[in-house]
Amino acid sequence: MSVLAPVENTASNGVVRFYQGGNSLKIQVYLKNLSPLTAYTLRIHQVGDCRDPLKGSIGEPFDHTTYNFQKEPIETKQIGNLGDVTADENGSIEFHFTVLGSKLTGPRKDSILGRSLILTAKGQDETASRPIACGLISKNATL
Asked: What CATH number should be reported for the domain holding residue 104?
């Protein structure tokens, strides 16, 4: 679970829940206090430190190679980019999806536990990629 809190002068917040199911990760996103009908991007970053995400405390986006049981590379992609979501007319997002090849637990290089989850506004201006909400991915997040 990750409880996202506002960054700097934003009000955006919410909860993202993660459920491991075999070789896939089920993700439930509940966000509020967003700009209505605006696209946002969810990303997992290397470092679980939301003290100052605008100055890089979150590190680089989480990225690794996914392997099958025989240790042969089957796919290389940036697992940390969870994709884009759009707020409804009330400025809320409720979205459920599945990511294949991602793991909640396991070896540190593969696990998303202890990393940060970032919400950014998707757009063309220079502030588009700036974090507007940040949370730590943990087994037992506090609300």
From this structure: 2.60.40.200
- What is the rounded CA–CA span in Å between residue 114 and residue 68? 23
Distance CA 118, CA 90 (A): 21
Cα-to-chain-centroid distance, residue 90: 22
SS3 label, residue 53: helix
Task: Return the exposure string of 24-60: e unless at least 16 CB atoms fall within 10 Å of the residue's CB, then b.
Answer: ebebebebbbbeeeeebbbbbbebbbbeebeeebbee
Residue 142 domain-assigned?
Answer: no
List, for the chain, all residue ranges whose pLDDT scores fall below the cut of 70. 64-79, 107, 123-128, 141-143
Q: Is residue 119 part of a domain?
A: yes
Contact 20, 100 (CB under 8 A): no
Number of domains in the chain: 1
pTM of the predicted structure, to 2 decimals: 0.83
User: Do 20 and 105 touch, CB atoms closer than 8 A?
Assistant: yes
Per the structure, the complete domain to which residue 122 belongs is given by 2-136
Q: Is residue 58 part of a domain?
A: yes
